[in-house]
């Protein structure tokens, strides 16, 4: 860089780049990648997409290659509106839905809208690290609230709100098959959260990226379903159930906030890619999306099971995990003495990657957890990659621990 140029102070907030690394590594030939949160590319319905593109070009070529309104292509918004109603009982009006360039843009715009330097954002720990980066770059302080098998810890939430009061400007949560843990909030916890939080004038960003990837249970009602005050901003995406390459996602709000988001969207990029929106709408109108989601869920359930069986077969005692009922991730707690910072380079040397759990805590406080993506690799690679990880973990476990610990699988 030219020595006279200075970065903005915001760049100090982005010291990590673990997500960037996972994205950069993802195309490396021969790599067994359990790191990036990608759907499996072979599930992308390329032929149907090609047919949609041809139809769009034939029937709407000129409109599809033009600018679009900042709120998005009306037909696509209508289709999303109907899906949200049918699947989740959500009742958003057309003007309460904006198409965004990935749900990552919804996170970025939310930070732009609500955060000033030194404001406080509350979030579940661990949490999606792309959200942490998107919120942190606006120089907010990230304060974590522990979560358990059933969702965010309500006592801790109450205690933290009492402590920080009106410095808290945003709450970020992801109640369905969360990234990174794969856990979902129980119905009771959803109700308790909404009852409690409606007493505070704080916007809540509900990230529903994985809500449709449910393996063997009906999708849960979102927080937005219970929200009476218009406090929930709901963001969803086609990235995980269809393909991330189109970058089609949505942001919904029942309040006047949507006008502000629209201004920000217009400022950020004028509109999302028009042809991608036409293509997505055509695909939805000519194909059975629910059938597609069922098929990929069956594949991911299978891959989850292959991974779990291999972990049970190869990993040493003292490893704990919860079986995810949806989403893309398995979250593992390794024996305490394993430092995943040291484990990762050893794994990369053997052509296997994973995400260190520490990356999902802004203070990197826990060193012995890892996130494994199970959607992206074929059976043979899952088995081989897990076996390599198991060997490395065994080498790292001190002999006394190996002798005494028992496998504890939740
Ligand atoms: C929880 C969560 N939210 C949002 C995103 C961003 O997805 P996209 O921008 O592709 O919609 C991701 C991607 O991994 C995610 O895991």
Task: Tell me what you see in this structure.
With 410 residues, the protein is of the alpha/beta class. The chain folds into 2 domains: 9-44 and 291-398, Aspartate Aminotransferase, domain 1, CATH 3.90.1150; 46-286, Aspartate Aminotransferase, domain 2 (3-Layer(aba) Sandwich). The protein has helices at 18-25, 46-64, 74-88, 103-114, 129-136, 154-164, 187-197, 223-226, 257-269, 274-286, 289-314, 340-349, 379-396, 399-404; strands spanning 32-33, 97-101, 120-125, 141-148, 151-152, 168-173, 204-207, 232-237, 248-253, 320-321, 329-333, 352-353, 355-356, 369-373. The strands form 3 sheets. The chain has an 8-stranded mixed beta sheet, sandwiched between helices. The chain has a 4-stranded antiparallel beta sheet with strand order 10-11-14-13, with helices on one face. A two-stranded parallel sheet has the order 1-12. Helix 7 links the parallel strand 6 and strand 7. Helix 4 (103-114) packs across helix 9. Residues 399-410 have low confidence and may be disordered. The structure holds pyridoxal-5'-phosphate. Pyridoxal-5'-phosphate binds at residues 37, 102-104, 128, 130, 174, 179, 207, 209, 237, 239, 244, 249.
SS elements, strand count: 14
Question: From the coordinates shown, what is the CATH architecture of the largest domain?
Answer: 3-Layer(aba) Sandwich
Instruction: Give the total of domains.
Output: 2
Mean pLDDT: 91
- The CATH homologous superfamily of the largest domain: Type I PLP-dependent aspartate aminotransferase-like (Major domain)
Shape: globular
Enumerate the distinct ligands. Answer: pyridoxal-5'-phosphate
Helix content: 40-55%
């Amino acid at each position: 860089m030219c020595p006279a140029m200075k970065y903005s102070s915001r760049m100090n907030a982005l010291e990590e780049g673990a997500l960037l690394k996972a994205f950069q590594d993802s195309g490396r030939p021969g790599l067994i990648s359990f790191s990036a949160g990608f759907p499996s590319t072979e599930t992308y319905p390329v032929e149907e997409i090609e047919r949609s593109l041809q139809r769009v070009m034939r029937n709407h070529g000129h409109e599809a290659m033009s600018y679009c309104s900042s709120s998005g292509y009306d037909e696509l918004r209508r289709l999303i509106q109907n899906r949200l109603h049918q699947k989740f009982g959500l009742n958003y009006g057309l003007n309460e839905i904006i198409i965004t360039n990935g749900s990552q843009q919804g996170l970025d715009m939310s930070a732009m809208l609500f955060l000033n330097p030194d404001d406080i954002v509350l979030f579940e720990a661990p949490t999606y690290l792309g959200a942490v980066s998107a919120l942190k770059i606006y120089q907010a302080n990230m304060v974590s609230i522990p979560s358990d098998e059933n969702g965010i810890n309500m006592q801790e939430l109450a205690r933290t709100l009492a402590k920080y009061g009106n410095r808290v400007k945003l709450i970020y949560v992801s109640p369905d098959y969360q990234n990174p843990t794969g856990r979902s909030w129980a119905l009771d916890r959803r109700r308790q959260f909404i009852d409690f939080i409606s007493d505070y004038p704080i916007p809540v960003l509900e990230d529903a990226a994985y809500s449709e990837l449910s393996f063997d249970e009906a999708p849960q009602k979102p927080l937005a379903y219970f929200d009476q005050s218009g406090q929930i901003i709901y963001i969803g995406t086609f990235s995980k159930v269809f393909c991330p390459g189109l970058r089609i996602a949505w942001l919904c709000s029942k309040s006047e906030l949507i006008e502000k988001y629209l201004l920000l969207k217009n400022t950020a990029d004028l509109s999302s890619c028009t042809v991608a929106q036409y293509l997505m709408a055509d695909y939805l109108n000519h194909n059975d999306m629910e059938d597609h989601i069922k098929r990929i869920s069956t594949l991911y359930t299978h891959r989850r099971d292959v991974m779990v069986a291999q972990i049970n077969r190869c990993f040493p005692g003292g490893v704990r995990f919860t079986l995810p009922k949806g989403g893309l991730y398995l979250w593992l707690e390794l024996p305490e003495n394993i430092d995943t910072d040291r484990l990762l380079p050893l794994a990369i040397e053997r052509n296997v990657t994973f995400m260190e759990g520490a990356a999902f805590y802004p203070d990197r406080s826990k060193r012995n957890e890892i996130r494994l993506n199970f959607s992206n690799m074929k059976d043979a690679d899952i088995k081989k990659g897990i076996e390599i990880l198991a060997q490395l973990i065994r080498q790292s476990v001190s002999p006394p621990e190996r002798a005494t610990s028992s496998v504890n699988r939740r």
